[in-house]
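pls design
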């Protein structure tokens, strides 16, 4: 069985219209999706000793994710206020709480022996990536960050470099893939929402169309696609086959609310009540 560690961001996504919050965040989502796909997974991050933190920890335990390196510290768990335009999610407001952290020596040693480690650009861990990549192959999500110097500094460390490209033209997608490959990434994935996705290595490109479905909520679909692609690459699946499986998995995520489910009544702080009055 392959072993995947995800290190970095977490959040509770608060759906004011539903009065519910759901565990989320790129790295937390990856740890759960990888476990669902069949990998052994671990999540390394920081949450508060509050109701939101309890919901995150409970969900990770229920999903079978190793949380031996999950910190519970004083301070608020990160949260994000989610709105929707039709089924597309809109980020209205957020607070990072105590989710930003620096990995300890023990955290880094823990990564040795894993098949890969996933980190997202929103995790604030870029200065630690070289140390992380020394321990295991690195999967990195650039998300929508576009600055060239950032891509060039991180691509050489990447086994898989992922980019959110729903707003990019086909020519722009190919240009970013070429740039990341030239900079040293072994594999590049560009997810394009309703336009599907493109996967590339040094020798070829593969593409897949998005599954046409009646979506409920698109939050977490991109993270699902990254996780299933990484799982397929590490298990030796053919690129066209793993892309089709990733598209189907991403479509499944759009059929329920929240990135990974596990919804609970919103119970964070007076800040949420104030935001309810503004949105």
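designed seq:
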């Amino acid at each position: 069985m392959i072993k995947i560690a995800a290190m970095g961001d977490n959040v509770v996504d608060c759906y004011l219209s539903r009065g519910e919050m759901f565990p989320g965040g790129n790295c937390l989502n990856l740890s759960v999706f990888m476990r669902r796909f069949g990998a052994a997974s671990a999540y390394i991050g920081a949450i508060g000793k509050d109701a939101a933190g309890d919901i995150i920890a409970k969900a990770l335990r229920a999903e079978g994710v190793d949380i031996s390196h999950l910190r519970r510290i004083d301070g608020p768990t990160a949260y994000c206020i989610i709105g929707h335009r039709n089924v597309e999610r809109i980020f209205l407001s957020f607070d990072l709480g105590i989710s930003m952290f620096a990995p300890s020596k023990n955290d880094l040693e823990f990564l040795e022996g894993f098949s890969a480690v996933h980190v997202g650009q929103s995790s604030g861990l870029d200065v630690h990536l070289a140390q992380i990549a020394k321990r295991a192959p690195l999967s990195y999500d650039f998300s929508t960050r576009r600055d060239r110097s950032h891509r060039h500094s991180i691509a050489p460390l990447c086994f898989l470099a992922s980019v959110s490209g729903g707003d990019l033209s086909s020519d722009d997608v190919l240009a970013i893939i070429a740039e990341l490959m030239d900079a040293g990434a072994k594999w590049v994935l560009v997810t394009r929402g309703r336009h599907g996705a493109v996967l590339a290595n040094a020798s070829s490109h593969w593409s897949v169309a998005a599954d046409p479905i009646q979506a409920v909520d698109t939050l977490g679909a991109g993270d699902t696609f990254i996780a299933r692609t990484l799982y397929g690459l590490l298990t030796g699946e053919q690129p066209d086959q793993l892309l089709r499986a990733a598209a189907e998995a991403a479509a499944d995520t759009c059929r329920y609310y929240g990135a990974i489910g596990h919804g609970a009544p919103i119970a964070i702080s007076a800040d949420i009540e104030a935001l309810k009055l503004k949105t």
